[in-house]
Amino acid sequence: MLARDFYVFYKSDITLFLQLDMASSATISSVGAQAALVSKPRNRGISGLKASSSISFELGSSFLGKTGSLRASVTTRVAPKAKSVARILPEASYKVAVLGAAGGIGQPLGLLIKMSPLVSELRLYDIANVKGVAADLSHCNTPSQVMDFTGPAELASCLKGVDVVVIPAGVPRKPGMTRDDLFNINAGIVKSLIEAVADNCPEAFIHIISNPVNSTVPIAAEILKQKGVYNTKKLFGVSTLDVVRANTFVAQKKGLKLIDVDVPVVGGHAGITILPLLSKTRPSVTFTDEETEQLTKRIQNAGTEVVEAKAGAGSATLSMAYAAARFVESSLRALAGDPDVYECTYVQSELTELPFFASRVKIGKNGVESIISSDLEGITEYEANALEALKPELKASIEKGIEFAHKQQGAAASV
């Protein structure tokens, strides 16, 4: 066998692998069909790598495998298509910047992104302590080069020429703290970072994680408008964690195989603005009124559940990193030409009367290709009432973000 190294990912009872061979294309497939190539025990782990001149993969697969991928837990099956194979040429390798890379979300997120064969450069930025994180991740034998950047003086260098910018920077929630309590600090952080993005990589996909997302995404939009580089199709609020939680809780409640469960989540990314559309769950499943209310409230309050469980030691950092990595992967696959990338995300939208709204969208090479409106058709009375109830709060959060951006612009103009 010519290949010396492999990616190996084991998930539940399914083992998948990615073989990268210098002399041929790589394919992702079930180890059942290639058992002779892998002689490792059935435990979880990732090991090895060999570079490839090109990569082939089945659409719907990922750097962590196909059926067992993390992506499968949040990607909808909107329009199943016949299996096809796409070839990614050598230039389909992307530069990803993580701003806030030394934090509780940034570190595990960096690790997950480092695992992707679609990433050529992983650029890590923070105001302190990022060099150690970069040194640590650089020892992982995966293709991407890890680079570190510390402080505002190095931010421009970090952002030059990147394809995807992920922003988890900011302070975390603590017990008793609402997302609104985070606003004054995190709003200023997002403003500064987005200004740098606008100046150095205006064509990049921008993923906003910093809370409160309901307000920070509108802030980012206004800053990009002020800079004259706002592209509505490339600014995303990462609400994937709400989908990940909905899928997990529904699968547990109904005894379903988690990999098959898909629950669209619409609205916003805080409290009652998070609306899981349980009636649209795939595979189709029925819920009692009591189950619907219990599940909806748990999904809406899941962040608080983690904050309280950590008792002052942090917020939902690991699950957020997991969800953000799924969204990064989806963006990279869209950039690489995968025609079937669907995610729920908080974007500028005309789906409702609100200027920003989280819903399922189709993502392509140029960003959002279409917003899927069908999820809001034929919803239950409970969901319809919840949708109307969330709108005033979401509207207020959006307006708060826009007002902040305008005040900052006015203050800058008066100096």
Summarize the structure.
The chain contains ten helices and 16 strands. It has 415 residues and is of the alpha/beta class.
Tell me the CATH topology. Answer: L-2-Hydroxyisocaproate Dehydrogenase, Chain A, domain 2
| Rough outline | globular
> What is the CATH homology-level superfamily?
Lactate dehydrogenase/glycoside hydrolase, family 4, C-terminal
The largest β sheet comes out as:
6 strands, parallel
CATH architecture, by name, is Alpha-Beta Complex
Give the class from helix and strand content and strand pairing: alpha/beta
Order of helices and strands: EEEEEEHEHEHEHEHEHEEHHHEEEH
User: Could you report the average pLDDT, rounded to the nearest whole number?
Assistant: 82
Outline the structure in words.
With 415 residues, this protein is α/β, with parallel strands linked by helices. The chain has one domain (94-413): L-2-Hydroxyisocaproate Dehydrogenase, Chain A, domain 2, CATH 3.90.110.10. Helices cover 35% and strands 20% of the residues. The protein has a six-stranded parallel β-sheet, with helices on both faces. Helix 4 links the parallel strand 9 and strand 10 (205-208). The termini are far apart. Mean pLDDT is 82; it is low at 1-91. It holds the Pfam family Ldh_1_C. Its EC number is 1.1.1.37.
